[in-house]
Amino acid sequence: MTEIEENFFNSVDLHKDYTDDLNRVLNFKERAIKNNAKVILITSGGTIVPFEKNMVRFLDNFSGGNRGATTAEYFLQKGYYVLFLSRKNSLQPFVKNLMLHETNFFTYLGINENDGGNGRNHSCSGGGGGGGGCGGNESLSFDSDRDPRLSPSLDVVKNHVCIGEAYYYEVSKEYLKWKKYYEAGSLERVNFETVGEYLYLLKNISIELSVLKSNLIVYAAAAVSDFYIPLNNMAKHKIQSKNQSLTITLDPVPKMIKFLVDNWCPNSYIVTFKLETDQTILNEKCLASLANYKHQLVIGNLLSDYRNWVIFHQQSKEPFIVKRELTNFQIQQKQQQLNSSLSSSSSSSSVSSKNNIINEQQKQPIGVDHPIEYNIGEKLIELHKQFIIKNN
Questions:
Q1: Are the C-beta atoms of 248 and 230 separated by less than 8 Å?
Q2: Crossing angle for the helix pair 372-391 and 66-77, nearest 10 degrees?
Q3: Phi-psi region of 213 (alpha: psi -120 to 50; beta: other; left: phi over 0)
Q4: Which of 88, 102, 234, 317 has its Cβ near the most Cβ atoms within 10 Å?
Q5: CB atoms within 10 A of CB 227
Q6: Euclidean distance between the first and final Cα of the chain, in Å?
Q7: Which of 180, 153, 177 shows the shortest CA–CA distance to 94?
Q8: Which of 126, 133, 142, 143 lies closest to 111 in space, CA to CA?
Q9: Do 300 and 286 meet the contact criterion of CB atoms below 8 Å apart?
Q10: Distances 34 to 4, 28, 81, 175 between C-alpha atoms, Å
Q11: Quick one: pLDDT at residue 281?
Q12: What tens digit of pLDDT does each residue of 210-245 get?
C-alpha cells in the first residue's frame, strides 16, 4: 500500500462501535466456516464526506441502498450467509419492504381496544378466523433489542398499539423472514457513515473473510464518494457562514478495488458496479475497470433504466444483458403448475378440455412481481458456481 492509501486510512475517525462490529464479523466468519456456507459480503448505500470533525455539514451521494438490501434478501433465500455492510439508516433486508410503504410504518399500526385499559398484558396477534390484527391467539412480537427500527417490543403493548388487521399478514411475513435468518446466524449487519469508515471496514472485513477463498463473493454495491477532506484539513467545529462564499478543497479518495482484488481477498469472486447516464461511456468504464483491476465481474447500470436491465462484463468474455424477467426457477414452477392442471384433468376431461386449459394458461400475462436484483442474483450464483469449480 502506498503512502497515499496509508495517509487516507490514518485519517479515518472510527466510530465507537468498531471493535464490537469486528468481533461480530469474526463470529459470523466462524459460523460460516463451521457450516461450510457460501458467503456474500454486500456493501450498500451511499457514503458521506464530513466538512467538520464535529459534523454538521457534509456531502452525500445518490443511493438509498435498495439494490444491496434486495440482493441480500435473494441470497439469504438461496442459502448464502450474508454480511451486510451498509450506510447507517439506509434500507435493510426485509425491513425495507415495510419502510417503502405508500406512507410510512405507522400505516400498519392500529389501536387495541380490548386490553382492559392498561395496555400491558395483551400482545398484538392474529384475529379470530386468521384475519390478523389485535386480539386472538397467535401472538406476533418484535424484539427491540435485536432491531429497534422495526418497532418497540410488542410483547408488552404500550399505549394500546398493535399491528392493524389489514396489514398483519404483510408485517408478519417480512418479520418472520428477517427473524429466521437473523436467529440462524446467516445474516450479520455492520454500519458505516463516512467514506473513511466504509473503506476502513471494507478492508478489515474482507481480510477476515478472505479465508473463505472461492466460497466468498464481494458484492461492492455501495456508492463510494470520489473525494474527501483529510482529517488534518477539516474544521473542528461548524463552519460559520458570515454571509461569505465558501471554498473547500477536496482530495481524491484512493482507489481501493486493486487492493481488494490483489491483497485483501485475492482468491474470492469480486463484483463491482458502474453507473452512468450514457451507454457508450458506461461500456468504456466497465471495460476499463476490468482491465485495471483484473477482477471477475463489473455490472453496468444506466441511471435512466437501472431497475429494468443491467449489463454483465467479465474477463475475456462477451458482455451480456440481464433483464428484469421471470427467473428460471419461476418458469419451472409455472410449468409444474401447468402440468399439474393437465394431470388432474387427464382422467375425466376430453382433449378439448385440455386444450382449453392450455389456451387459458397462454392467455394469462406473465407477471414479473420481483425486482431485477433477483435476476442479477440468479445469474451471479451461476457464475459463482463456475468460479468455485474452476478454483477448487
A1: no
A2: 60
A3: left
A4: 234
A5: 13
A6: 29
A7: 177
A8: 133
A9: yes
A10: 38, 10, 12, 26
A11: 96
A12: 999 999 999 999 999 999 888 888 888 988 887 788
pLDDT, tens digit, 9 for 90 and up, residues 343-381: 665 554 555 544 553 444 444 444 557 899 999 999 999
Phi-psi domain of 65 (left: phi exceeds 0; alpha: psi -120 through 50; beta: other): left
C-alpha grid cell, residue 139: 401472538
Closest CA relative to residue 65, chosen from 193, 256, 242, 205? 193
Cell of 358: 392450455
Q: How many CA atoms lie within 13 A of 53 on its CB side?
A: 11
Residue pair 151/144 in contact by the 8 Å Cβ criterion: yes
Nearest to 278 by CA among 297, 298, 307, 301: 301
| Helix/strand/coil for 380 | helix
| Chain segment 171-186, per-residue pLDDT in tens | 888 889 999 999 999 9
Q: Which residues pair with residue 19 across a beta bridge?
A: none
pLDDT band with cut points at 50, 70 and 90 for residue 11: confident
Assign 137 a pLDDT band (cuts: 50, 70, 90): very low
Residues of the chain above pLDDT 70, percent: 74
The pairing of strands 81-87 and 216-220 is unpaired
Cell match 474470492: residue?
Answer: 268
- Find the helix or strand (DSSP H, E) in which 227 lies: strand 227-228
- Each residue's pLDDT tens digit, 42-69: 999 999 988 888 888 888 887 889 999 9
CA separation for the pair 92, 72 (Å, rounded): 9
Tell me the pairing of strands 320-323 and 269-276: unpaired
Domains delineated in the chain? 3-88+193-325 (3.40.50.10300), 98-176 (no CATH), 328-363 (no CATH)
Q: Where are the alpha helices (DSSP H) in the chain?
A: 3-10, 18-34, 66-77, 96-99, 168-184, 195-209, 257-259, 279-293, 328-344, 351-363, 372-391
Structure-block grid coordinates of residue 137? 391467539
Whole-prediction pTM: 0.80
Give 299's strand partners: 273, 312
What's the farthest any 2 CA atoms get from each other in the chain?
87
pLDDT reading at 392 higher than 70: yes
